């Protein structure tokens, strides 16, 4: 597949969409929209079916809800264009409770329903468990997880990773601290999860192989840790000046910053995400000025400048639905996945996953709204190093950020 792919493509009938717990607000959900309970027969009736794995219950239900806004937007737009090959997409919903432990059961139900495509789950540990369990089927899946192995096309030929993975993130973060900031005593704070382990490997490997530097300190915490003070105290004692701080838990970042304030520890911070600006109101701005994170380059702007390109229109649509949760919603891979899927289906004139996988593996330079997307048969991480930038946290409060979706590039 060449680089001339457009973002447009076919869609699904307005009579098919999501209901019940998929709603995060009413803007995308119209009257008469229903979800499919599962046909158990793939596309034999000509109607493609989309499996949808989202926590509707459990402690992560509200936190992960914004990550599916882009998917609903894509379905609405595909809908308005007339359907996948003129036919509606049926949606098969599954509640994974936001837990890796439920993925085998969820996968078994999906394998029985035999959807052609699957979006979700969100979270690296959840994604690895899900993709592993669903590998026995034929569906094309895209989950939101940054672990490197999720982009391994040899191990998981049916999964496509439309996010920058931990190798790329770790490399960008380590390079920023060592090269851009000139720091040498670099530490790491990460959670004990699939994502955290993968980030630790990438961050450590980059410093060791590219800069012949070892970490000054490493602290690994449980995702539900109630207090980050012991971990931050250890890093402070180690003389850490620059800190890679990687966790998918909003509370962990808040607790970490609070511990830094209480301990008088103020390193330069690079996180994997710049999502939680509204949770940091209690944190002194002096500390937040040194808080940076990885970002999609198309969702950044230069100092003194403004956002530009197709992402501006995309951001406006996301912001209208997500409000204060817009950053998380805009960074989700599901919008790009479904729009790319619709384009590939139109070009190949089929919804058969077996045939579509070969076409996905030929995608080169598809213009996703967050980044160009390319795959090969063995590399299913569609986001390249050039698409990653380091941006500032505090720019989320600037007018140019469009409600925090865009961030100012680190100078």
Automatic annotation (TrEMBL):
Keywords tagged on the record: Signal
Protein's name according to its UniProt entry: Amino acid/amide ABC transporter substrate-binding protein (HAAT family)
Record PROSITE patterns: TAT
Gene3D superfamilies: 3.40.50.2300
Domain of life: Bacteria
Source organism of the structure: Amycolatopsis thermoflava
Keyword Signal: yes
Domain Leucine-binding protein, residue spans: 50-384
Family in the record: Belongs to the leucine-binding protein family.
